[in-house]
Please model this.
Amino acid sequence: MNFYQSVYEIVRRIPKGRVATYGQVAYLAGNPRASRAVGYALHRNPFPGEIPCHRVVNREGRLAPGFAFGGPGIQQELLEAEGVAVQDGYVDLTKYCWHPEKEETHSDV
Model:
């Protein structure tokens, strides 16, 4: 699997109501210094309806100024529709950041 494919698979895992940072996605894709490459991969998103690139923000929680699919206003609308509060173009990462390492696997015990 190449880097872009890894990015797309990781972004598909971000649940509704959560966001991840470009750096976080780069780290999970095995290249922690490639946050700009993550942004480029998402800008070239081949499946905008399937890969929720609107759930990726910068390290400060700021929305993408050049959101590829309609600008930051559209990104904000998509996030707010999922229950993520956006204030002055920022998402509170302490509240909405996705932590895949904390995801629990539920089993019928």
About this structure: DSSP finds five helices and four strands in the chain. Helices lie at 3-13, 22-28, 35-43, 72-81, 93-96. Strands lie at 20-21, 56-57, 86-87, 90-91. The radius of gyration is 13 Å.
